[in-house]
Amino acid sequence: MTTDTRNGARVAVVGGGVIGLSVAWRAAAAGHAVTLFDPKPAAGASWVAGGMLAPVAEAWPGEEAVLELGEESLARWPRFVRELTTDGADPVMNTAGTVIAAWDPGDAAQLEVLAGYLRRVGRGAELVDRRQLRKRVPGLSSRLRIGLWVPGDLAVDNRKLLRALQRACDHRGVRFRHEWVEAVEPATVRTGSGEFAYDEVVLAAGARTGMLHRELKDLVRPLKGEILRLRARRTSLPPPPLTVRAVVENRPLYLVPRTDGEVVVGATQYEAGFDETVAAGGVRELLDAAERVYPSVAEYELTEAAAGLRSASTDNLPLIGRLSDGVIVATGHYRNGLLHAPVTADAVVALLEDDEPPGAARAADPARARKEASV
């Protein structure tokens, strides 16, 4: 067995998506000697994400713990960005808010359910008619029924975020090992080139996490999602100035603008194992829905079609905490990996230092899943 040593506590982080990179950066900044294992960091689902930081827009009755965790993490984002800009680069946040639009009567009824729920739990969101919706976002289709204005939900450029995190990790001395991990055990990471000993192991490998530890086998699964990137032409309308989410014939859609004139359109969602190929049907579905909501995108250049695998837990709440053998897990963030990055990183650093995780993160303790499985 090879022992990877430097000054301070030795921490292995398995997984180089937004969660793994955030954990590695924060742990190194806290004084730990961190090694990150991933054959291709800053890729996967994080690379093809929309970049929405939207706990309210993602809310739904019965998922109060998910809402509270998202809001706690969103409150940490301003500091996260300031410190990341110092250590790495500015990830570029869009603070203009979010609108959610409904296409047909059934979609409008679904949006009204969400609006009513948000009123009951005291969250900031305003139901608007189609005229007000188009006034807020010129270029939206006149056929949309109603909208929901969510001023507090934000967005970030996911690819600039990942590059900034890589630079911040380098700045803080994180060591990268570009290889697949085959299994993790307490204080041990096993790869094709050998076994490596650490004081702590953090498992943050996204959709692959369930393959690396026996306790997570039935608790985390991959959910495939396709996204498109479109670029406005000189003769077309520019992308919307803020995040536009929509429900089109009961299918969710989002259009997230970028500062370079691109817009990210997403996302399909279905069970496909670990298949990351782009299906023609998924592309057609996204283009059709996007054109209905924001007709000008039909004139845009299609610059990219990609697919990624979200890591989904059994109850949509991530798994953040220690497993029964002491391995720390940070996975199962579903559609909210970017949103949850600050609170997850802070929770993991607290666990490394034998402190209590942030309040809302305690509900994400994987012990809850073990209890449910034993019932």
UniProtKB/TrEMBL annotation:
A single GO cellular-component term on record: cytoplasm
Superkingdom of origin organism: Bacteria
MF-aspect GO terms: flavin adenine dinucleotide binding; glycine oxidase activity
Transmembrane domains' residue ranges: none
Leader peptide range in chain numbering: none
Positions of the FAD dependent oxidoreductase domain: 10-350
GO biological process: thiamine biosynthetic process; thiamine diphosphate biosynthetic process
Listed Gene3D superfamilies: D-Amino Acid Oxidase, subunit A, domain 2 (3.30.9.10), FAD/NAD(P)-binding domain (3.50.50.60)
Pfam families: DAO (PF01266)
EC number(s) per entry: 1.4.3.19
Catalytic activity from the UniProt record: glycine + O2 + H2O = glyoxylate + H2O2 + NH4(+)
Keywords: Oxidoreductase, Thiamine biosynthesis
The protein's annotated pathway: Cofactor biosynthesis; thiamine diphosphate biosynthesis
Protein name: glycine oxidase
Species lineage: Bacteria, Bacillati, Actinomycetota, Actinomycetes, Pseudonocardiales
